[in-house]
Amino acid sequence: EVQLVESGGGLVQAGGSLRLSCEISGYAFDEYPDYAIGWYRQAPGKEREGVACLSSRVESIYYADSVKGRFTFSTNNGKDTVYLQMNSVKPEDTAVYYCGIELNTVVTEKLLCRNAMDLWGKGTQVTVYS
Predict the structure, then answer these.
(1) Beta-carbon neighbour count of residue 30 at 10 Å?
(2) Rounded to an integer, what distance in angstroms lies between the CA atom of residue 70 and that of residue 97?
(3) Is 79 exposed, middle or buried (0-12, 13-18, 19+ CB in 10 A)?
(4) 115 pLDDT exceeds 90?
(5) Looking at residue 15, what is its pLDDT?
(6) Taking a C-beta distance cutoff of 8 angstroms, is the pair 22, 5 a contact?
(7) Bridge partners (DSSP) listed for residue 124
(8) Do the beta carbons of residue 87 and residue 31 sit within 8 Å?
(9) Which DSSP string corresponds to the chain?
(10) pLDDT in the model for residue 79
(11) Would you tell me how many other CB atoms lie within 10 Å of the CB of residue 98?
(12) Cβ-Cβ contacts under 8 Å for 79 (sequence gap 6 or more)
């Protein structure tokens, strides 16, 4: 069973930094090399939006315009843990952040960060105060 568990959320002052982690278990990355992983967020009263996404078939990482230059998506060597480094955070970054994975699927660059993940974690709350 594939599971995703996010951690690292919390309360942070505007301009500060936070690092989110997502541990992915139960997925055989070597056996099923086609996948996409993404960080999404949902603020109160708003729809869930893609923040940063990668595909095993695409070299570049997609970032939403609102976080470009401030957030960095990275993985460990085994790809079973992904991170979202959040720098220069703003109050508008306040949201529940989710990690999602699209399994055994070829995701092209144009399809990155579309809301089609197969599985999601439970999310971690990030609150930015000014």
Answers:
(1) 8
(2) 16
(3) middle
(4) no
(5) 98
(6) yes
(7) 97
(8) no
(9) --EEEEE--EEEETT--EEEEEEEES--TTTS---EEEEEEE-TTS--EEEEEEETT-SSPEE-TTTTTTEEEEE-TTSSEEEEEE-S--GGG-EEEEEEEE-S----GGGTT-S--SEE---EEEEEE-
(10) 78
(11) 22
(12) 24, 29, 37
Token code pair at residue 82: 């992904």
Which residue in this structure is represented by tokens 């090399």? 33
What's the pLDDT tens digit per position in 12-66? Answer: 999 999 999 999 999 998 888 999 999 999 999 999 999 999 999 998 999 999 9
List, in order, residues 6 or more apart from 26 with CB less than 8 Å away: 1, 2, 3
Residue keyed to tokens 């079973």: 80
Query: Tokens standing for 23?
Result: 């541990």
* C-beta separation of 107 from 58 below 8 A: yes
Each residue's pLDDT tens digit, 59-113: 899 999 999 999 999 999 877 999 999 999 999 999 999 999 999 899 999 999 9
